[in-house]
Records
---
Amino acid sequence: MPELQRVASHLIPSRQGRSGDDPIFALNDEARTRQARGEDVLNATLGALLDDEGRLAVLPTAARAVSEVAAPDWAAYAPIAGPPAFLDAVIADLFATDPTLAAQSVAVATPGGSGALRHAIATFLEPGQALLTTDFFWGPYKTLADENERTLRTFRTFASAEALDVDALDEALGAVLAAQGRALLILNDPCHNPSGYSMSPEDWAGVCAVVGRHAREAPVTVVLDNAYAAFAAPGAMDTARAALAELAETALVLVAWSASKTFTHYGLRVGSLVAVLPDADERRQVGNALAYACRGTWSNCNRGGMTAVTRLLADPVLRPQVDAERAELVRLLNGRVTAFNTAARAAGLKYPRYAGGFFTTVFAEDAKAAAARMRADGVYVVPIPGALRIGICALPTSGIERTVEAVARAL
Ligand SMILES: Cc1ncc(COP(=O)(O)O)c(C=O)c1O
């Protein structure tokens, strides 16, 4: 065999050296391997809601709606921007109580909230520009920025365990605008991943004041990533919605909407990016740009999935059924939240206010070392800079106390 001549890498330089495996999935694999060997291991790494027997919690009505989608509906292409009935149902889900916001909205279908975030980053920032988010953030924000040739800049999330650091946002937003003339701010609320924090009315008032001031000088886009909204404490989404209405007076407001958690169908890949624009001509232009982005990225989304989700959102029989089933899951999750708060307060752990949602984080100086000590104790959590992320969603209620004890020992 003639010796192959070595050529330069086929990978373009910007794609070289990328990690192919997700560290959270690697930890999850290790925990599951130990469980399969019969070890008594608690696995709080993944972001899916499990029941107390460790099975994926699936809303029965959602599963039925998916199974009732007819073959031609799975087989045919969907419209590029998404089926109008689906987009209307998403907008109504977000803004039924605010007809002005609903009338000012334009939406496109995306594969999950991830696709919505992708479109937001690629459509409202130039290549090389930085998105702005809290310094505790969902890791894929950085991946999405990298993959789309944008960067990520953060501001300090918390002024205290009870308050967002609005001054840090003010300073960072000013600096980003000075550097690049436009800004895109991603806020994940309610039930922030990874911290579990839900913004208070005071936090939102602070954000509105800061963004409003900057947005009068330069284009500011605010993306609300509300992937966990259906699991929040009552009223949390109302607070966010009222703030969005105020923000929309000066800034471009986007919502990254996702069916993954809302309907416990993570693999269905159904989502939407919703943009609020009071000006009809601008709304048309943004709608066109987003539809073009769909065509140029994934063409169209899962038609069968969107058909099922449209029924779940809009059918007068299915909607109350699925909402009632979800309320049961929220009760299950809230039981774990209460158990965590009780045990964590007693153990003196430091963590942001946690009133609901899939995750919480405990502040930890050397999180990697603490997580390693916990693994030796048979408890798996995710170390992130400055904290341990605990997937309360994946822990049985009976395992919460042991998890808190393991955290307390490891810190
Ligand atoms: C903070 C946050 N945003 C968005 C998403 C989007 O998920 P999906 O693309 O499945 O809708 C997730 C999923 O884990 C998330 O944790």
---
Amino acid sequence: MKYKILLKQHIGAPCTSTVKEGQRVKRGALIASPTGLGAPIHSPFSGTVDSVSDEAIFIEADETQSEEYEKISGENVTDLLAASGAVGMGGAGFPTHIKCNVDLKGGYILVNAAECEPLLGHNIAQLESNLEKTLEGLKILMKHCNAAEGIFAIKAKHEKAVAILDKALKDEKSIKYHLLPDLYPMGEERAVVREVLGKLLLPTDLPSAADAVVINAETVLRVAEAVNDKRPVITKNVSVAGKLKKGKDTQVFMNVPIGTTVGRLIEMAGGIDGEYGEIIMGGPFTGHSVDPDTPITKTTGGIIVTDAFEDLSGKRVGLLLCACGGNEERMREIAGRMNGTVGLIQKCKQAVEVKGTLKCENPGNCPGQAEKCLNFKKDGCTDILIGNCSDCTNTVMGSAPKLGLTVHHQTDHVMDTVGHERMRHLTKSKQVQADITSSGDYEMTRIIEGGMLKIRIKEGKNIHIELPC
Ligand code: SF4
């Protein structure tokens, strides 16, 4: 079978092929090198190079594949990480050897196991099935980056994985876990720092400003494989979900060879169940639409087959963009597939542009959306399509319906497919009265479903709070 290995699997420019048509390659052999910022690419198969284009290397794989691979070499951890081709496998694709080439001076390695996007499950499945290897990777990184603590950031709802962590970390003095609430986007890098370390970074800051590196759980596993097993990155863990004959529960496939097509993975998951709307590569918020013959890369996390889109019959639809949701192109695409006419386009006021992309000033903490909804109304929109985080979606619902605007979320067709509740109100609103009698800086804590809502009150007297609990 012929496989297409893309030359761009990371941020930066595409790699350059180091192989020629007709050349024999072994599984794990170097086939492409970066031209600047990037990471090398290795063959996921033993076989023969069929052809090379500007976009990809095509490999005719041998019928029989062994588990063996060509080993990488390097003098130290940085060399081995660079040689392995490891990049941020949560989707960012930033080269790991550059990200981790930092002296944290006793700071923190934060393992991002938030599995933030709905429906994805491979990071949690990895912790449940192979925590040992992930711990190896974490210890390598703690030593390499001079970090005093390693902390797994994981949502409290993943009870089985949390129980496994709890047991495994009992005797670990410098490794622990931190429970996150079940909100989107808790996996955003600065949201992880804020939740775990209590520091709110600027959109332009890197986690190193809090003496931390935030690194995806699968990337940590690949670090252990690179340093201890001298294994290059040639496989990826993937979640497949949606309109599938085997049912709507997410299926996880571990160590899928890079270059495997989306269609093949869907077949492995039982095949598509009837007519469908689109196939998303990635998660419902940040993923994009792909064809079945698209190959997976080092950053592919999910493949989701959806139901058909709702039909807006040409209605005027405003777009509200979130820094952690679909970009304008993706939101326009969804509006088009819904047969809507795009009207006013606005972004959440906490979404600021940093180097050409939107970043949130305080991920998942809503600044209020009433003004945006009024603008949509003035523009003549009857409907709005939003890509907002859980909290902001909640506040859109506080004003848009009162103005006669029908709200659609970019994840609606995905949530409908699997029978999940749509992103709307977090839960029913409830009035809470609190009398604060002494002044000062203190904390009032209230448990809400799926997590903990903490409210910091500076100077208090008789405050009235409406909580989404
Ligand atoms: S506050 Fe705004 S920009 Fe930030 S995550 Fe929520 S919707 Fe997105």
